[in-house]
Structure formats: C-alpha cells, structure tokens
Amino acid sequence: MSKASAFFVEQLLHWHTHHNDREMPWKGEADPYKIWLSEVILQQTRVAQGWSYYLRFVEAFPTVQDLAAAPDDAVMKLWEGLGYYSRARNLLQAARDVVKELNGQLPATYTGWRKLKGVGPYTAAAIASFAFNEDVPVVDGNVYRIYARYFGVDTPIDTTAGKKTFQELAEQLLPLGHARDYNQAIMDFGATVCTPKAPKCSTCPMQAHCVAKAKGKVGEWPVKAKKRKRKTRYFHYLVFQHNGHTFLRKRTGKDIWQGLHDFPMIEGEKWLSPKELQATAEGQAWHQGTGEWRERGRYQQQLTHQNIHAVFYEIEAEPKAESHWFSVPQAEITNFAFPKIVDCYLRDNTLYLTLH
Ligand code: SF4
Q1: Is residue 221 a part of any domain in this protein?
Q2: By the 8 A CB rule, do 265 and 240 touch?
Q3: CB-defined site of ligand 1, < 6 Å
Q4: Based on the domain organization, do 204 and 332 belong to the same domain?
C-alpha cells in the first residue's frame, strides 16, 4: 500500500473514533433486517427525509415476516412521498422470497444478499459489513467523490472504466477485519467533511496528501462523462366527480409511479386547454360532453430524469369509464397511495381536507 493510501486509512479511522457523533436511528444497528430497511430507504433519499419513514416501517413491520405478510397497498401507502417506488416493490418481493425460499432466514453474507431482489452491490456491502463485519467495501457516490479527490482520479465515475477503478481502489484500501468501522467512517466523512459542495478542506485530516486540494481541483472532481437531459412531461388530470364518487386508476406498466394511484390523465408535450383536451382521443372516449371543467391548480415535481408538470381539472360528470378505472367514494380516497404531485393537489383542495 502506498504512503498516501496508508495515511488515508489511518487518518480516516482515527478521525472516526473522535467524530462518531452523527446520530441516526439505525446507527450501530446489528439487526440485518433493520439495516436493510434503512439502506433501501436511504437510496436517493436524504437522511432527514428517510428518518421518519424508517421509524414508521420498523414500527409497522418489525420483522421480515411482518413485512412479507403485508398487503402491497399497505406498503405503498407507508412509502408514499418517498419516491423511487420500485424500491418498495422490490423490498416487499425480497421479503416474501426470504420467507418462502429461505425459511425466513435473512442471508448472512454479501453473496447471499446480492441474490435478493433490488439488493445491489452497495446495499449488500453495507448490510454484510454493518451486521456481520464481512470484509466488503461500500462503494457509492460518497466513496467516488472522496477517492477521486484525495487520490486525484479523473476517470469519469459513470463509465465502466471508472467504476472498475474505484471498486479496485476501495478493495485495496479496506483494512481487513475492520469493514464495519471503515465503511461507517467513510460514509460519515463524505456526509460531513468531504461533502459535494463546500467541503471542509481547511480542517480536513487528509489535506496533507489530498491531490485535489494540492491542485485546486476540489470543485472539479469527481468527473462525470455524460450530462443527462431532463425530459419535461405535461400531465392533465381529469378528476371526474359524480354522486360523491371519483375515479381512480392504479398505475401499471413500465412508466414512473408503478403501483401508485392517480386520476385518469391525458399527457401532452405542452399544456393543453380543456377544449384541446376534449378533442384528443382520450378526451373523446372519456368525456360525455357534459359538466363544467374547473381548474384546481398546477403543480410541478422534479424527478431525477423528468420534470413533471400537472394540472387538475375537476369535472362534475360521470365519465365513460375505462375498464381499468374504478370508482371510489370520496370519503375513502385517503386510503390509497398517490404520487407526491397528486397528494399535493388533494391536500390543497377541499376534496381531501374535508375528509380528514
Ligand atoms: S482536503 Fe478537501 S477534498 Fe481533500 S479529502 Fe479533505 S475535504 Fe476532501
């Protein structure tokens, strides 16, 4: 191991013994099921946001058996607002597989965890090291950023070559027998010192050997090859209301928000007026030509690769319903799990407020 590598490992572990004060409800947890829950919740989610979801999940489903036995909709409802819903679907599927195929016994190794649905290399390494101290390094955005800066690696992190380079570096650096501490230390270091914006270089214990600091490239590293363009989509929701009922559909197929519910919707590449909406194929198929259209607000939600704009029209009429829609008494609408943008509309409008 080079001098810079040895210095890094030693400093990181030393730093962590004095700065292991980042409080989180799952910190120091030894139960692999709870670690798994926390890691899945924290993928693409800030700690502050994931915190209450974790507590609610642990309370509602204290064991993998409880989770496996839960109805799909109960899990989706609890996940509501957290985004990236495929995580919840995979978690539930994996819990059921554990109960059915592994006799309810959670895996005790990295390789075993990798076989479960939705458990990628990072999550498997986190669980195997935190619960069992297995010698596997965690490699995620924190690790890419810290190693790219400290060692001056400018291979783009979103390329095969970059991923291989960082994986090998992480494996070489991991001090055997200390995976639990080392992995926790690097996550905490990335979250509090070598942060994406405004890292604390002037007080950083690594600064003596940090290549990015020496070359003035802290803001440039890690390097990314591609910049993905966000797609903008316009959703026109038709909230049909008839005899105290409204119409919902469960989202299926390969699009976003699979497993959640929303209203009948017409998508456009730009905003469409009620007249234009009525002239579309869906508008003609669904709308009987009666009832006033009231616009009840426009909302925007930013996803990783998509910008969603939504407008909600409440229509006092019975639609020509499609087979995959179902009619729901308005008093029961809160029982369903919705995407955030629909939830915002429901919360802003009397439809929801009068029902709480
Ligand atoms: S000196 Fe700055 S860039 Fe280098 S490891 Fe420390 S915080 Fe990160």
Answers
A1: no
A2: no
A3: 146, 149-150, 193-194, 199-201, 204, 206-207, 210, 212-213, 218
A4: no
Say if strands 261-262 and 325-329 run parallel, antiparallel, or are unpaired: unpaired
Amino acid present at 141 = G
**pTM for this entry:** 0.77
Which has more confidence, 27 or 91?
91
Six token digits for residue 340: 């955030």
Enumerate the β-bridge partners of residue 268. Answer: 234
Paired residues of 153 in beta bridges: none
**Residue span of the structural domain in which 335 resides:** 231-353
Tell whether 285 and 200 lie within a shared domain: no
Residues 6+ apart with CB under 8 A from 159: 225
Ligand 1 geometric centre to CA of 150 (Å): 6
Number of domains in the chain: 2
Question: What are the CA-CA distances from residue 208 to residues 8, 193, 242, 326 (Å)?
Answer: 10, 15, 70, 64
Note whether 80 and 165 are same-domain residues: yes
pLDDT at 352 exceeding the cut of 70: no
Residues belonging to the active site: 39
Nearest in space to 347 (alpha carbons), one of 234, 356, 330: 356
